[in-house]
Amino acid sequence: MDVNTPIFAIAMAAELAGMHPQTLRQYDRLGLVSPDRTAGKSRRYSMRDVEQLREVGRLTAEGLNLEGIRRILTLEDQVAQLAARVRELESALADEMLNRPGRRVFAAKESGYVISLPAGTRAQRSNELVVWRPVLFD
Fold first, then answer.
1. Taking the alpha carbons of 99, 102, 106, 110 in that order, is the dihedral positive or negative?
2. Is 70 exceeded by the pLDDT of residue 98?
3. How far apart are CA 120 and CA 6, in angstroms?
4. Of 46, 55, 57, 47, nearest in space to 20 by CA
5. SS3 of 57-85
6. Does the pLDDT at position 9 exceed 90?
7. What is the pLDDT of residue 108?
8. Mean pLDDT, range 92-102, rounded to an integer
9. Is residue 86 helix, strand or coil?
10. CA of 34: how far to CAs of 24, 47, 110, 119, in Å?
11. What is the 3-state secondary structure (H, E, C) of 10-27?
12. Which of 8, 37, 87, 125 has most Cβ atoms within 10 angstroms of its Cβ?
């Protein structure tokens, strides 16, 4: 079992979070916490959901409104996903460097992708000139 396993019924989750079950239903409707559902449509909360409910309660006590809390939770989820992606890319880069010791030079393409370059070569640079003129409105 891990923190994402849905094991708590709404009454137990409410007790663990220090809230009323009706509050959990409202937070579910607003999308602040999205518990899993059983085949009979009963809510099942994980320990991660309970921790998120506690965070919502803490932020509410600090004076934030529910829309602000929803935005904070969304941004925290995005940060966690991006951090996981960075760790994944760092691991892939480390593996690449170990598997190809002669190719340790990297450059970014115009599209943003990182490419390997053979040792001793330089990335091709664009020497295009872009002229910008502001549009004047009368």
1. negative
2. yes
3. 54
4. 57
5. HHHHHCCCCHHHHHHHHHHHHHHHHHHHH
6. yes
7. 67
8. 77
9. helix
10. 10, 12, 39, 50
11. HHHHHHHHCCCHHHHHHH
12. 8
DSSP letter string, 26-61: HHHHHTS---EE-TT--EEB-HHHHHHHHHHHHHHH
| 38-89 pLDDT per residue, tens | 999 999 999 999 999 999 999 999 999 999 999 999 999 999 999 999 999 9
Taking CA atoms, 48 is separated from 5, 7, 65, in Å, by 8, 11, 21
Q: Which two tokens stand for residue 62?
A: 């600090």
Check: pTM over 0.85? Answer yes or no. Answer: no
Tokens of 36: 């899993």
- Tell me if residue 103 falls in helix, strand or coil: coil
| Tokens 């009368």 belong to residue | 138
Tokens matching residue 37: 């559902």
Inter-residue contact 43 to 35 (CB < 8 Å): yes
